[in-house]
Write a structure and sequence with these properties.
Structural class: mainly alpha
Largest sheet: none
Radius of gyration: 18 Å
Helix content: over 70%
Order of helices and strands: HHHHHHHHHHHHHH
Number of helices: 14
């Protein structure tokens, strides 16, 4: 399930890069990704009823929506302008930020082993950000996406105490559509037939990947699943090489190894209570 979900996410990343190269603005891609995601929810919403969507914590939903949308903008931009493998790897920095946010916001204990794991991960980020000794500003955008995604996931944890999954997903999709529609006032351009095909594929691949990921976490402990999420980097590197002749820098492999090890360690160095959360 998890390997399949990461294959779908990497395929979505390759599609995002393809449609960006064709001249589609990032603002358009993000909006239509959110719109198609919301349309997928319609049958479930009709079955559940409007009452299921009422919430007593609108501010948390707004924070989750804005953070998640910001992460999407950052990742899509990074995927369009970096090697695909680099963009997918920066997406995987989210676990490095999670313990820090949980410590600052949720008052969770930050164990010394977790701090060391996070430091190891950011050492790996250094090698990705400076592949040839020079800072790539676009990579910083991808890293910012990792931080924003961590905020979004931490918010989901808070919402999970009182809110059902459908309500959380609905408000995220709705906020995403409404906010990402604003830039269309200056960024709209009519997609070509082929671009429509790529944009629809982005929606299908992203939604399908999320369904597989959710199912995987439902049937297996997160500790067993976490290492397999890094397959998206392998798939991304394969797509990049096959379609754009992208060959990662030598330092990429060292950075990828450090980030992957750190991501797994941040999970195993947390307390049983934190893992349940």
């Amino acid at each position: 399930m998890i390997v399949a979900s990461e294959f779908l996410f990497a395929s979505m990343g390759a599609t995002v890069k393809t449609v960006a190269i064709s001249g589609m603005p990032n603002e358009m891609t993000v909006f239509l990704r959110n719109l198609f995601g919301l349309l997928v929810l319609v049958p479930f919403l009709l079955h559940a009823g409007v009452a299921e969507l009422k919430t007593a914590v609108p501010r948390l939903h707004l924070l989750r929506g804005l953070a998640g949308l910001g992460a999407m903008y950052c990742f899509f931009y990074a995927l369009a302008h970096l090697h695909l493998a680099d963009g997918m790897l920066l997406k995987m920095t989210t676990p490095l930020f999670m313990p820090l946010i949980a410590w600052l916001w949720l008052s969770e204990a930050l164990r010394p082993a977790t701090v060391l794991a996070v430091m190891l991960g950011f050492a790996g980020v250094y090698f990705v950000l400076l592949p040839e000794g020079e800072l790539n500003p676009v990579a910083l955008v991808g890293l910012a996406g990792g931080a924003l995604a961590a905020v979004a996931k931490s918010t989901v944890r808070r919402l999970g105490r009182t809110e059902p999954n459908l309500r959380v997903v609905f408000w995220f999709s709705t906020i995403g559509v409404l906010v990402s529609a604003v830039p269309l006032t200056w960024a709209w351009q009519q997609p070509t037939p082929s671009q429509w095909g790529w944009l629809i594929a982005i929606g299908i691949l992203g939604t399908s990947g999320q369904l597989f990921l959710t199912r995987g976490y439902a049937i297996a402990p997160s500790g067993r699943i976490s290492p397999f999420t890094y397959f998206s980097v392998v798939f991304g590197a394969t797509y990049g090489y096959l379609f754009w002749d992208e060959i990662p820098a030598t330092t990429f492999f060292l950075g990828a190894l450090l980030i992957a090890i750190a991501g797994v360690l941040t999970l195993f160095t947390r307390t049983p209570r934190q893992l349940r959360n």
